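Thread: zinc ion complex, take 2
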Amino acid sequence: MLLEHKLEDLDLQKDKINKQIEKRNAQRKLPCYSCNGKHKICELEAIQTYYYTEPYSCTGGDFVTRSDLHFVCPITGDRNRMLFMTNYDIPREKRSHYVNDPEEQFSRMYKHLFKNVTDEDHHVKSDSFNNEYVSKHMKQFGLSIQDLEKWVKTSFHVCWLKLTNI
Ligand SMILES: [Zn+2]
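Output below.
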């Protein structure tokens, strides 16, 4: 078998496994703090909130920052505001700079699996239940947070290995 064909086979296998992972993740359930039940991610409506920073001085501001993700209980119509407390000491606007930001990971892995996601301004008033479940059960959702220092060392190590292989 040509090596190129082997690579194509591997790509196909990878696609297949990725689809299986997506399917499994879409079936994962989120505990709802409104009805005290659990709902499958693929059956939930989500709302992504954003906030706008007004322009200031000559070059500052005039940008939109992603805020919290909410999901709506299909039974009560109330919202669950998903909170990720792990990085509470890092300002929100800087959290996405970290590869291990759990909120970023959740967004990347799960946001597209909700039934639908609508965008909303952060200032829209809505009653919601604060829901930290995912943040407190990261392993269950395949999220991991690494010590940043350790991550930098590992990255350095990988670079060093690549350099020495040249
Ligand atoms: Zn519910």
